[in-house]
Amino acid sequence: MPHIVCHYSASLDMPPVLDVMKTLHDAAASTGVVKAEDLKIRALPFTDYLVAGEQRSFFHVSLYLLAGRTPQRKEHLSTALRTALAGILTGIHSISIDIRDMDPQAYKKRLLDS
Questions:
Q1: DSSP 8-state secondary structure symbol assigned to residue 57
Q2: Which of 30, 43, 71, 75 has the fewest other C-beta atoms within 10 Å?
Q3: pTM of the entire predicted model
Q4: Could you read off the pLDDT of 35-45 as tens digits, one per residue?
């Protein structure tokens, strides 16, 4: 269920985005807060952006989880993701993580039968 949505500056400082997504997957799964097989990750580049009024590189993660995890578990997950990203995005000016709770009664999905 967890959805990781990445927004990032399309800049020369960016390593291959698939590598970054794999890094996020591994870091999130290693925390025990989410299961590897449940993670969904997608990324969107931006060519037009400003950070503090200047065109500085950025990588922002929004992670959507069903409500119910403690603030401590969410902080552990957020810190693990930021640390992992800092290790691979060494030339990126701004790295940020935002974890959002989703209402479990309002969240609905459909899967095709295998």
A1: -
A2: 71
A3: 0.91
A4: 999 999 999 99
